[in-house]
Amino acid sequence: MRLRKDERVKQFRSVKGEIQKISAEIAGRSTYEDSTRKITIDDNDLSNKKLEEYQNELHRLHDEKVHFVYQIGNNVFFLVNMHVFYLSDSFGFSIMLSFIVLSHKNERLQKVDIYICAIRDLSATLGTEASMIITKIHPSLNDLYGISKNISDDILKKLNGTVVSLEEEKHKRLEKLHHLGRALSNLWDLMDASYEGRQKFFHVIDLLSSAPSDVCAPGSITLDIIQQAEAEVKRLDQLKASRIKELFIKKQKELEDTCNMSHMETPSTEMGNITNLVDSGLTNCNFLQLLRVFVIHVKLIAEFCPLF
């Protein structure tokens, strides 16, 4: 049983070793640099499924290597036709291959740099620490460590996934701020909020007309901004009931005065029903707006249909 397990481990180690070797060749790392990397095998997972995953990865890398070599061949043919190098000159051929490998490596480095730049921009907008996010993907991506960047397919995949995740978080936060902005606007209108009271959250209101692609300024949609807006909405909601009652009493008095001046009978039944709603707390912005319309309606009747 022990021998079978050892053989299985050797099989896994062989496949992972090939994966590591080809990855290094494609990335432009030296054989020595690659050999210093320890091949680790999880003894607790030696299943056929896991082995198949490694073999599929190895096949994919083989295909990528073939494509890479094919590109080299095309470049060699081009350079020969341009008479830049004599292929009989082994030194010139080595220089040419080195140049092509370096070009391939530079292309990957450019992709890595583009991803890192996107992560930094998104992190600044969200108010998160870009350095920690980048280091978590791989320490070599952080310039502070002073080591060569890892530009493997796995790293490129992780970088892409991180950018997608940050974009999703950006959309999620902006959607939440849109909801909070609409709530604030409605509450301000209801409460007749002062300019000073609104000013602190003008940034949230400005975001109502913004699409995710428009929001890129540093600190635009931080968690602090969301929490402050949530707290303000909660505070105004708590004041709303008492404010509505206060406004209702004011409008009720206005209605009674209008009816008295016009010798009209105050609609006591309707006002009694509304009073019960106010006392029970079953009120909202629409209710108050209807009450305002009702007062205006009574005023119009008094103005155009006076009783003598």
Automatic annotation (TrEMBL):
Pfam families: MAP65_ASE1. Keywords: Coiled coil, Cytoplasm, Cytoskeleton, Membrane, Microtubule, Transmembrane, Transmembrane helix. InterPro entries: MAP65_Ase1_PRC1 (IPR007145). GO terms for molecular function: microtubule binding. The keyword Coiled coil applies. The keyword Protease does not apply. GO terms for biological process: microtubule cytoskeleton organization. GO terms for cellular component: microtubule. It is found in: Cytoplasm, Cytoskeleton. The chain crosses the membrane at residues 84-102. Belongs to the MAP65/ASE1 family. This is Uncharacterized protein.
